[in-house]
Amino acid sequence: LYCLVVMMLWYLPILAWCLLVSAWARRAVILWAVLPPLLLMLAEDVFLDTNYIAHMLRDRFVGWFSLAINTNATAEHAMVLDGERIPMTQRLSEVLDPGTFFTSPGLWIGLIVAAGFLWGAILLRRRRSET
Asked: Scanning 20, 101, 123, 124, which has the fewest C-beta atoms within 10 Å of its C-beta?
């Protein structure tokens, strides 16, 4: 249940972006949702020779795990999932780390961005329904 709440909050900006694009685009919604981030990543790599946007998007897709789960807990046994060590302890409270997750700037910035995307989607849908 904890991981479901964490993932829901963490992925909210991505879902809000999809809602915004679906309110704006009349056709090829998937293309319009994926193309701008890809073009931004390409332009940044070609013109600025940096990868900040790619790292930001990667962190948005998989970054919740390292914030919500304490991978440094001491345990006799551990499981490795996608390169991340997950300690297998007898107490779940030793592994879950809600304090780090709920105080991370990435979560709160993402929620603010999601609110902006949702507001934009609402405005676009209202305009479309008025005409």
From this structure: 123
